[in-house]
C-alpha cells in the first residue's frame, strides 16, 4: 500500500467518524424535539431547568447537520479524488479552527469585559424578576442550591430587590449558611456566601486540565484533517500535471 492510498483511507475513515458522530447528534436532537420528556428523565431533574432557556434539540440538530455534511464532503472528496471537494473541506476546517482560536483569544483578553456583560444582565434580573418570574426564579434557585452560592456577586444583589421587599426584608435561604428561612441581610453578611460567578470560575479552574485537554485534542484533530486534505490536494495536483 502506497503512502497516497494510506492517507486517502485515513481521510475516508476519519470523515466517516465525523459523519457517524453527526448522525448521532442529529438523532439525539430529533429525539429531544419530538419526545423531550423521556430524554429529560435520563438527564435528571436539573436538565429540566436548563431546557427552559436553551433549546437542546435544535442545537444538537444544527451541530449534527453540519458534521454530517462535513463528513460526507470529506468522504466523497477522498473517494472521488476531487480536488475541488478537498479544497472546500480544507477551507471549512480552517475557518472553524481560526474561529475557535479567535474565540479563545477574545475570551482570555476580554474576560473582565465578559464579566461586566454578565453582571449587567444578571443583576437587574435578580433585582426585578427573582421571585416574580417563575423561569428566572427556578434557574437561580437551582444554580444557587447546586453550587452553594448566592446571587451573581453575593447577597448584596438581593438587597433592595423586589424579592426582599415582598418578603419582609428576607433574602433567599441560599444566602445564609443555615440555608433556611428567614435569612436576614445581617446573617447573610456574616455567612459571607460566595457569588455564583466566583463559584463557576473556581469549578472551571479545577477542571482546567480537562477543558484544556479537550480543546487541544480538537485542535490536533482539526490540524490533522487540514494536513491530510492538503496533502491529497497537492498530490492530486502533481498527478494531474
CATH architecture of the largest domain: Orthogonal Bundle
Task: Tell me the count of domains.
Answer: 2
Indicate the multimeric state: single chain
At the fourth level of CATH, the homologous superfamily of the largest domain is Tetraspanin
Can you count the beta strands?
Answer: 0
Radius of gyration: 25 Å
Strand residues, percent: under 5%
The N- to C-terminal Cα distance equals: 23 Å
Protein name: Tetraspanin
InterPro entries: Tetraspanin/Peripherin, Tetraspanin_animals, Tetraspanin_CS, Tetraspanin_EC2_sf
Main location: membrane
Subcellular location: Lysosome membrane; Membrane
Quick synopsis:
With 241 residues, this protein is mostly helical. It has helices at residues 3-34, 36-43, 45-50, 56-80, 83-109, 111-129, 134-147, 162-166, 185-191, 196-206, 208-240. It has two domains: 1-80; 100-240, Cd81 Antigen, Extracellular Domain, Chain: A, CATH 1.10.1450.
